[in-house]
């Protein structure tokens, strides 16, 4: 009976993951606002930093946004000079999205504050627990992908 009550009192893992996502996004929005970008735009820039020259569909998938919203996001980043588009030499119909030097500068400017935010998020965890947390999140993502 007590176990059933405890289970009822505990929020679901999905709820807890969403809570973490929302608070991280709010802090990230606050961190990157001085550069005139949003957390979603920042995420797209970090994706391009790791895998430059993606199609819009690939960037949308890796940035956790819909294909429809990536078009506006890329237009906005392009207008700010943070990304550029060029034709794919292997498929002339496809445009590739590339990070510009200005985009790399924005990422460099925010690298330390973002690192500190991540450190704050796991400050009550040991190094081992942090690695286990990272692995658990990765496994959870793979299970649902």
Report on the structure:
- With 145 residues, the protein is mostly helical.
- 69% of the residues lie in helices and 10% in strands.
- The protein has 7 helices and 2 strands.
- A two-stranded antiparallel ribbon has the order 1-2.
- A hairpin with a 2-residue loop joins β1 and β2 (91-99).
- α3 (39-50) packs across α4 (56-63).
- The protein is globular.
- It starts with a helix and ends with a helix.
Can you lay out the helices and strands and say which pair or pack?
Layout (H helix, E strand, L loop, with lengths): L1 H8 L3 H20 L6 H12 L5 H8 L3 H13 L3 E6 L2 E9 L1 H21 L5 H18 L1
Antiparallel strand pairs: 1-2
Helix pairs in contact: 2-6, 3-4, 4-5
Which terms summarize this structure?
single chain; 10% strand; 2 strands
Overall geometry comes to globular
Helix % is: 55-70%
Give the neighbour order of strands across the main sheet. Answer: 1-2
The mean pLDDT is 93
For the largest beta-sheet, the strand count, sense and barrel status come to:
2 strands, antiparallel
Strand content: 5-15%
How many angstroms does the end-to-end distance come to? 36 Å
- Number of helix segments? 7
Structure, briefly:
Helices cover 69% and strands 10% of the residues. By secondary structure, the chain is mostly helical.
């Amino acid at each position: 009976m007590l176990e059933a009550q405890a289970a009822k009192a505990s929020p679901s893992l999905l709820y807890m993951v969403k809570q973490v996502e929302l608070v991280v996004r709010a802090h990230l929005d606050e961190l990157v606002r001085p550069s005139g970008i949003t957390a979603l735009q920042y995420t797209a820039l970090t994706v391009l930093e790791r895998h430059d020259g993606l199609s819009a569909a690939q960037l949308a998938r890796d940035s956790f946004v819909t294909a429809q919203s990536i078009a506006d996001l890329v237009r906005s980043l392009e207008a700010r000079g943070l990304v550029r588009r060029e034709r794919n030499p292997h498929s002339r119909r496809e445009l590739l999205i590339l990070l510009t030097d200005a985009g790399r500068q924005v990422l460099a400017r925010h690298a330390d504050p973002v690192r500190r935010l991540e450190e704050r998020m796991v400050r009550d965890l040991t190094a081992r627990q942090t690695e286990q947390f990272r692995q658990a999140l990765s496994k959870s993502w793979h299970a649902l992908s």
